[in-house]
Structures are given as C-alpha cells and as structure tokens.
Specification:
Blueprint lengths: L1 H78 L2 H11 L17
C-alpha cells in the first residue's frame, strides 16, 4: 500500500510541477497580450488625433477656397456688367446701336 501511495504522490508532484509551468506560461502569454493591446490603444488614439488635425486643416482650406470663390464671382459679375461692357464698346471700339432704319429683319425659310 505504501508503494502505491509513494507512486501516487510522485505522480501528483510531477503533475503539479507541470501545471505550475503551464500556469506560468499562460500568465506570460496573457501579460504579453495585455501589453500589446495597450500599445495598440495608444497607437490608435495617436492616429485619431493626427487624422482629426488633418480634417480641421482641410476644413480651413475649404473655407478659404469658398471665400475666394465668392470673391471671384463678385469680380466676374463686376467685369461683365452690361453697362460696363456697353461703355467699353462705345468708347474704345466706337460702336453704337444702329438706327431702326438701318436694321434689316431676315426671315428663316
């Protein structure tokens, strides 16, 4: 009976050492996963900040371009105003509206 008891104690001691080794490996793996997960959280929050800053910069550029577009539209309307074109034509090109007697109406066949 003692022999069986010693053999059983030996097996339990060997199994206990293996279990402790497995537990240590499992703890190490969990620790590595925890640290890598924390690093990924830090990296993703840094990337988010970079992208948000880039987005704000693009919004500022868009607003500046919209302001410039509005100014260009105002300038275009000023340059193409009917009375300005009429004054330029009459002064520089010496053109005028023909009298009604000089107007010939053409009909389409």
């Amino acid at each position: 009976m003692k022999d069986i008891s010693y053999a059983l104690n030996g097996l339990l001691l060997k199994a206990s050492r293996k279990a402790q080794a497995y537990i240590l490996v499992l703890i190490f793996v969990c620790l590595v996963l925890l640290v890598s997960s924390a690093q990924l959280v830090i990296y993703s929050s840094f990337e988010k900040r970079v992208l948000v800053n880039e987005l704000h910069l693009m919004h500022q550029q868009r607003d500046a371009m919209q302001e410039e577009w509005g100014q260009l539209l105002l300038e275009q309307s000023a340059w193409s105003a009917y009375n300005r074109v009429e004054n330029l034509v009459s002064e520089q090109l010496q053109m005028h509206v023909p009298p009604a007697s000089d107007v010939i109406m053409a009909r389409q066949p």
